[in-house]
Amino acid sequence: MRDSFQQQIDDLENEWAENPRWMGTIRDYTADDVVRLRGSYLPACSLARHGSEQLWSLLHNMDYVHALGAMSGGQAIQYVKGGLQALYLSGWQVAGDANTAGHVYPDQSLYPVNSVPTLVERLNNALRRADQIEWYENNGEVLRDWLVPIVADGEAGFGGALNVYELMKRMLRAGAAGVHFEDQLASEKKCGHMGGKVLVPTQQHIRTLTAARLAADVLGVPSVLIARTDALAATLITSDVDERDRPFLTGSRTAEGFFDTEPGMATPITRGLAYAPYCDLIWC
Q1: Strand order from edge to edge, sheet including 198-199
Q2: Catalytic machinery residues
Q3: Distant-in-sequence, close-in-space partners of 71: CB < 8 Å, separation ≥ 6
Q4: pLDDT per position in the chain (284 positions), as tens?
Q5: Taking Cα atoms as reference points, which of 116, 127, 235 lies closest to residue 176?
Q6: Does pTM surpass 0.90?
Q7: Residue 129: which CATH number?
Q8: 238 part of a folded domain
Q9: How far is the C-alpha of 68 from the C-alpha of 70, rounded, in Å?
Q10: Which domain holds residue 138?
Q11: Which of 54, 193, 235, 258 is the most exposed place for a label (fewest CB within 10 A)?
């Protein structure tokens, strides 16, 4: 039987306060908010939890973690056989050859929003099958941990905070261990090597990270949340509302109404420092 409503709140508050995993993490919501969103039944996201804990351990016990992008279950199995301890699931791969629309797209978030979670589930299904076969053939012993953590690309969230919240839940139900979100404007998303990137204000991306963390907390998964900034090469931003962004504005605007910004290291450093309390890793 599940703990009482208040007991769940107390347990969660204690977890956030005492577990070193959450040292320095800022949440702009309460344990009461989380428990209210859970409902009376909380599904067990065991693959996501296992992968998240495994990835967190790897990041703290290795200098770096090798991970290659996998587009199929067969690739995932071969990577693990080859010794990789984590897998990556890139949005550009999904766009180009592994989306639920069955089309070939450029890396501009044009594919259906369920594409990455669907592929995460597919990879985990393949790894589980490999685990089952080895377990069966070796009388209950496996030679390796097949269920390695999968880091998935959340793009720019496919919309606002509610879209991010729902996408993150789908990622975790599919078994993703970590998810990264970038600070580009979703509707103007550009691939990493393309020009014309449009940033959202710093405070808006913090809302994205907060929504993703809330989704993970609601599902009870210590997901590894990665904040990606494209500020190093971006030359545009949607608004001058955030004072942290203003020092990097040039004072001019485009025909679309975007604000011109100065690219360079200072901008991503400033953004990274602002994002850090709301995520686990920074990607620039």
Answers
A1: 198-199, 236-237, 259-261, 249-253
A2: 191
A3: 93, 94, 97, 98, 119
A4: 467 999 999 999 999 999 999 999 999 999 999 999 999 999 899 999 999 999 999 999 999 999 999 999 999 999 999 999 999 999 999 999 999 999 999 999 999 999 999 999 999 999 999 999 999 999 999 999 999 999 999 999 999 999 999 999 999 999 999 999 999 999 998 876 667 899 999 999 999 999 999 999 999 999 999 999 999 989 999 999 999 999 999 999 999 999 999 888 999 999 999 999 999 999 98
A5: 116
A6: yes
A7: 3.20.20.60
A8: no
A9: 6
A10: 26-226+278-283
A11: 193
Q: How many domains does the chain have?
A: 1
Task: With respect to residue 202, please indicate whether it lies within any of the assigned structural domains.
Answer: yes
The structure tokens 């600070």 sit at 183
Q: Which residues contact 206 (CB under 8 A, 6 or more apart)?
A: 274, 275, 278
Q: What is the DSSP string of 92-138?
A: HHHHHH--TT-----TTT-S-TTHHHHHHHHHHHHHHHHHHHHHHHT
Residue 250 lies in a domain: no
| Contact criterion met (CB below 8 Å) for 208 and 179 | no
